[in-house]
Structures are given as C-alpha cells and as structure tokens.
Design a protein that fits this description.
44% of the residues lie in helices and 14% in strands. Helix 16 packs antiparallel against helix 17. By secondary structure, it is an alpha/beta fold. The two termini are 21 Å apart. 49% of the residues are buried. The chain folds into 2 domains: 176 residues, D-Maltodextrin-Binding Protein, domain 2, CATH 3.40.190; 187 residues, 3-Layer(aba) Sandwich (D-Maltodextrin-Binding Protein, domain 2), CATH 3.40.190.
C-alpha cells in the first residue's frame, strides 16, 4: 500500500475552502441539455492518464450528451478538498479516494453518497470480493474496481545459485532464507519494519493466515507475528535496520540485487531491475495466503445533481469487465473483478498473476474510524521487536491492549 499521510494546516483549510467555493455542486448541465460530469482523482502517470481517457470514452460512447471532466488533485490535497467541499455542500460528481486512509473521516463528514441500492441492483456485484465493498452502519459508500496488494518478489539468479524452489509456504520460505544466510554472500529478506502503517501492512498477513484480524486480537493469537519478526532478525534473515525501513527503502534494497527476497506491492511491477526476478503470492499459513486490499475506492458525492448518471459512469468506466482490462493494461492496476483474471491480457502477465490471484482471498478492514491508529500501533511494536527493544510477548500484549482501546474509542464497531 502507498499510504499517504497529510497534515491539515490552517492555510491548507483556507485554500481548500476557497477551491471548493469556486466549484459547482456536481457536474453542469448546459442549455442544450449536455451534461458534464466532474471526476476527482490523483492519477498522475502517463499510463494511468491513458487508461482514464479510454475508460471515459466507454461511457461517453453510450452517453453522447455527457462529457467527463477529469480533474487531477495532488494526493495530499484530495481529502482536505473533499472535506471542505462537503462542508460547503458542493464538489465533484464522482471521485476516487484513498479508502483505507480516508474512509472513516469522509463518512463522518457526510462526503460520501450511499451506493447500497445501486450496488444491490448491479448485476456484476458477484464478481467482486466482499472486502472491496466498504460499509458503515450497514450502508455501502465505496467500492473498489482495483486494488494494491502485497506479494513476494524473488531474485531468480540467487535462487538458481543455491538450487532453491520458489516458496509457497512459510516453512519453505524460511528454509530458503536459511540457505542464503548461511552462504553469507547475499541478504535473505528485504522487508519494511518501520514504526508506521508500512510495517503493519507488511507483517499483519502472518496473522490473517491464522484467521486473526484487527477485530479479534488477543496477546496469544498476535504472538506469531512478533515471534516471526524476532526469529528472522535473530537468525540473520532480516537486517536490523529493517526496524526503520519503509516500503520504499525495502524496495531499494531488493532492487540492488543483493537480496534473495522482498515483500512489497504490485506498484513495483513496472520497475526496470538489472537482474532476473519473479513474483509469487505471500507464502501462506494454516488458513492460506491473505493480505489486506489497498488502493482507491469509487465514490459519488451526495451533492451531485446527476446521481443516476454518476452510477452509470461507475458501472461502465470502472466496474465493467472492459474497463477493468483497460485499467490493468495501461496503468497496471490489479483488477478485483473475478472474471478479468481469465482475460488474455491478465493471463499473459505472469508477474502480475500472483497479485491477481491474491484478490480472491483479501481480508476486510475493520469498520472503525481508528483503523489507522491500530496499524500504527502494530508498526511501532514490530519496529521495537526487530530492533531488540521489546520481546515478542511484550509487543503482543501491548498491541492487543492498544487495539482494543482504539476500537472502543472509535465507536466500538469493528
């Protein structure tokens, strides 16, 4: 996940309010009956912008009187602008928000329109995983047509030198890392262990593979995650500096060619590395392989004047099979729609295949406004374990207590 924190300064609020005040409430309708739908996102890359254009054309071909106006907002500014727009009862018609980070705040501010009726009537809804449908108090507000996921990258050259298999289980991964570490020529694992959401994002799948999510934590059932982090560090598989490494730093380490394995996300698939590499799903535990879904959610503004058109736009330009293939092909997004996994474009991309497969078993995030705080707690305690400042038992007890307090402070739901 590329998490993006933001600091809402007074000047930033003023700028956001000023920008919102200059916007109309949703898209405009001209005297000739033509409609403009305004869409906010923070897509930036050439491939992403190419995909957006083609996806919008799908909708405009079937809606000749409608024009889609794509407005690109810097990622750090989108949430403040949406909050300011909601306060002024204005804003875009449709937007893509960083749902893992922003969802609780946007729901509380009344910035999201309920999609429940439209989603329940949508014929393609069975193609999407439940974890990609975001609810609050029984209402659906966000749906994800694509996602960002973690996987295991491996250096083919290093595995070849030591005749090691690509690991499918945690036991095999640890066996491989033991061989690499004993040889002493390369590092075994490049992974984030920073005291942030990056650390939590990287290590929590160990618990998801044991059916432990943020909503059922105890000191005992959280212990395996911290024990794994400690043993990998003590056995030399993971460098101690991982305690301060985020996902960007750990990717740089893997990219050097000096590590056999790296845990990181699909957003690195387009990297031009100087060695042969491959990908596989994160090795699973007793309940298989599971990760959390990241990325953007599709939303409609409650202040749009064209809500039926907004939903038709989402159906056509984002949720349809054709739109998913376009987004995957041009911008590299991992589609969550199940039938897209069998498309020729997806099947031909062997590096992306493990990430696409992972969408079938993604785990749902808590329905609580303090999810970010829970992740930060996990990251902080993991960092302490990796650096040797806390024992696994101490970290598990402290983390479980803090998560339960966060759930309670966030309203008690999970």
């Amino acid at each position: 996940m590329k998490s993006r924190g933001w600091v809402l300064a007074a000047a930033g609020v003023a700028l956001a309010l000023a920008a919102a005040a200059c916007s109309s409430a949703g898209g405009a309708t001209s005297s000739s009956g033509k409609v403009t739908l305004t869409v906010w996102s923070y897509y930036t890359g050439a491939g992403q912008l190419k995909a957006l254009k083609q996806q919008d054309e799908l909708f405009e071909k079937t809606h000749p009187n409608v024009t889609v106006d794509q407005v690109q907002i810097p990622g750090s500014e989108l949430d403040p602008k949406l909050l300011a727009a909601a306060a002024a009862k204005t804003g875009p018609d449709v937007f893509l928000d960083n749902v893992v980070v922003d969802f609780p705040e946007l729901v509380a501010a009344g910035a999201l329109y309920p999609l429940t009726k439209d989603w329940d009537a949508y014929a393609g809804r069975s193609q999407y995983p439940a974890a990609g449908v975001w609810k609050s108090k029984g209402q659906i507000y966000n749906v994800m047509s694509y996602t960002n996921l973690l996987g295991l990258y491996y250096n083919k050259s290093i595995l070849g030198q030591y005749h090691l298999p690509v690991p499918a289980t945690m036991a095999q991964l640890e066996s491989d890392m033991a061989v690499v570490t004993k040889a002493g020529k390369y590092g075994a694992m490049a992974a984030a262990g920073s005291p942030t959401t990056d650390g939590a994002w990287t290590w929590y799948p160990i618990l998801l593979d044991r059916n432990v999510n943020y909503c059922n934590t105890t000191p005992a059932n959280m212990l395996p995650m911290f024990q794994t982090a400690a043993s990998w560090t003590n056995d030399g598989y993971l460098p101690k500096e991982a305690a301060t490494s985020n996902q960007t730093v750990s990717w740089t380490q893997f990219s050097s060619g000096d590590y056999a394995f790296g845990i990181n996300g699909n957003w690195n698939l387009g990297s031009d590395l100087k060695f042969q590499w491959g990908t596989t799903q994160l090795p699973g535990g007793p309940d298989g392989s599971h990760v959390f879904p990241g990325g953007e959610g599709l939303s409609i503004s409650p202040f749009s004047k064209h809500k039926q058109l907004d939903w038709e736009y989402l159906e056509t330009s984002w949720l349809s099979e054709k739109a998913n293939v376009i987004d995957f092909t041009d911008s590299g997004q991992i589609p969550t729609r199940a039938d897209v996994a069998t498309s020729a474009a997806v099947k031909a991309d062997t590096d992306a295949a493990p990430f696409v497969a992972a969408t079938k078993t993604v785990s749902a995030w808590p329905d609580n406004s303090n999810t970010s705080e829970m992740q930060t707690t996990v990251g902080t305690e993991l960092s302490d374990v990796i650096s040797g400042q806390a024992s696994p038992a101490q970290a598990a007890a402290a983390t479980s207590t803090a998560i339960h307090n966060d759930i309670k402070a966030g309203g008690g739901d999970c």
